[in-house]
Amino acid sequence: MEHTTTDLTIAVRRQLVLSNLSTVASISEATRLSFPTVKKQLEQLIQAGEVFEHGFEDSRGGRPAKRYVYNEQFTHGLTLYVEKTVIRYRLIDCTGKTIDDGTQLILDADHLGALGAVLDRQLDQTSDVSAISLGVAAAVADGTIILAPEYPTFAHLDLKRWVESRTDRPAVIENDMNAAVYGYGHTHELSGDQSIVYIYLGKNGPGAGILINGQLIRGKTGFSGEISFLPLYDDSTFLDRITSERSAPTPAPLSDAALDALGRLVATFTATLNPHAIIFSDVDLVDAELEGIRHACQRHIPAAHTPDLLIGIWEEDYFAGLARRCVGLILESI
Amino acid sequence: MEHTTTDLTIAVRRQLVLSNLSTVASISEATRLSFPTVKKQLEQLIQAGEVFEHGFEDSRGGRPAKRYVYNEQFTHGLTLYVEKTVIRYRLIDCTGKTIDDGTQLILDADHLGALGAVLDRQLDQTSDVSAISLGVAAAVADGTIILAPEYPTFAHLDLKRWVESRTDRPAVIENDMNAAVYGYGHTHELSGDQSIVYIYLGKNGPGAGILINGQLIRGKTGFSGEISFLPLYDDSTFLDRITSERSAPTPAPLSDAALDALGRLVATFTATLNPHAIIFSDVDLVDAELEGIRHACQRHIPAAHTPDLLIGIWEEDYFAGLARRCVGLILESI
DNA sequence: TCGACTTATTAAACCAATTTAAAAAGTTAG
DNA sequence: CTAACTTTTTAAATTGGTTTAATAAGTCGA
Q1: How far apart are the first and last CA of chain A?
Q2: Which of A107, B117, B166, B171 has a CA that sits 20 to 30 A from residue B197's CA?
Q3: Concatenated DSSP letters for A181-204?
């Protein structure tokens, strides 16, 4: 029996990996495929070594269901993100779990050289990497760097193709804010049509990632989430009010000016998108400061409409987003 | 042969009505169904009187394709919207074309009474109305009126159920801004993942409708698009700057203050959603004024990212959105 | 006007997933 | 400990769509 990768196989595989369902019945329900069909796909996957039988589910009054688990070691992925002076990377199994991590310093602002070095080294150490996801603090469109004040060597480069030809593996390039909000949204299992905004104040100007119905909002020119340009005051922008604040070493308690600016920022999103939650990063704020922001927001907007204000773990969310994208690539390319 | 309404029938019907495709080949391509399958469904629809054969397409070098058209008279729909002192309605055929229209004055702010009167009268005149769509300038969640400063008699009413039990037909209730942006988006054939914002300044406070990937953004509490609350200045909101303007009879040329406020509004959407286009209504602005707004926006945002600024015909867009929703209901209920 | 070419339609064979029914493997009440 | 009941799994039959191939109906150039 030939292993022909079909839509059905992919659908079943996605349920095993992404939703970690483990019984035929649950996968059958989730995919709206019939029991025999799912079973047949699983048999093929077991033949190929992609899936293992793994004991039984607890019985609920009748014959207990067999439990199937995806072989995490079947293949691997590499996720990385590039900052101003360092590249951080994590090797993941094909379900997204971290297996190994590390960093690589960037010398003389040669981001491209450093990236190439990490890729070569990691792929040499681990042979069965079948996809790569890369995060950058830059505007990206279709794998090409549109605007990169941080990395001169990346300017106007088709980074996706560069990585793919250097590594001979499929790659995805993602903006940092988009990766973070995508990661947060998917690790926190947003139900259906929720929308969230992830705000990172950062060292080099703030940005926001927007997730609606599980989909990233990229905008007409990749400019979405460039909140530093928001005209929130007569003569100054959001960036103006925040930077005068953030010159002091973080974490310093927020000044009234910064609190007011953040309140207006939340109000702005509420009066436009009315999102379910707005996530701030642990790098910028601590939990106790959220109450002040909420209060500042309510000077402009009735309390009933205020979104939930939450703290996200920046690095984890960033990597979670990259991992999810990477696993998606892996599942497509098997 | 029994006429069993299946997913296939629905898919084919949608292409005929919503995308007005007319040949088997084009429908087959759009639905990704095979030629024989589409053909079979069409035969059943012809049997049922829902579809007619209608001559041939112009040949493109070979045998010309038969043209199939949906029977517009197969059933009808009723669309209406309620304003402060008047209800406007349009009777439509099942492809959305207007067949008849009219208005009903509202006496003593008895919006509910007037609505009931129109419904009774119209359904009495036209027997084969199989769905109703209703637009209101109020916050709606799931057919229930959440907040209705305009219509005291609607407050907290499950208007969808009220209409359905009064008329014995399926109904959909939609917010005015949402209907307008939905109508604009679908009459102007937005390609794929475009996003647009429709802005209406109105007599009773401005509002915006947001359409992303063809989907309406409703928000956590139905508060999305309540742009009057935007904090665009040190001590005043968008509403403040606009109303001082709009006390004069419209259309008066825009003052510098209003221009500045509108420029900031566009900048705000650009720095968050970065939409492809922002639509203003013909009730509020004329085409020549858009240039001033664009200019005002570029005081805050680089020109490359500015969305297209366009004028929409408010009443037509509003009705187009209602018609589209109504046709959707009709197609579901056949 | 004929013949080569294009494109659309029809008919028949085929196949893949669903449905149905029977068997297997548990649990629980008496 | 057995009988009655649940729930999962397997096997067989059916269905409903696709694929393939043959046919029909046009265009265009010589």
Answers
A1: 18
A2: B171
A3: HHHHHHHTT--TT-EEEEEE--SS
Residue burial A284-310, b: 16+ Cβ < 10 Å; e: rest:
bbeeebbebbbebbbebbeeebbbebe
Q: Which nucleotides of C are covered by protein (CB under 7 A)?
A: 5-12, 16-20, 24-28
Residue B61's nearest nucleotide, by CA–C1', is D27
Q: Which residue has the tokens 């009010």?
A: A241
Handedness of CA A119, A120, A125, A131 (dihedral sign): positive
DSSP A94: T
Structural domain total, chain B: 3
Contact B273, A230 (CB under 8 A): no
What's the whole-number average pLDDT of chain B? Answer: 91
Q: Please give the mean pLDDT across all residues of chain A.
A: 91
**Mean pLDDT score, B184-208:** 89
- A164 and A240 share a domain? no
Which residue range(s) make up the domain with B195? Answer: 189-312
Q: Which residues of A touch B301 (CB under 8 A)?
A: 229
Residues B96 and B43 in one domain: no
Segment A28-45 mean pLDDT = 90
What backbone phi and psi angles, to 5 degrees, belong to A123? -70, -25
Percentage of residues in chain B having pLDDT higher than 70: 96
Contact B274 A226 (CB under 8 A): yes
Write out pLDDT tens, residues A87-143.
999 999 999 999 999 999 999 999 999 999 999 999 999 989 999 999 999 989 899
Residue B146 CB: number of other CB atoms within 10 A? 16
- Residue A252: its pLDDT value, please? 58
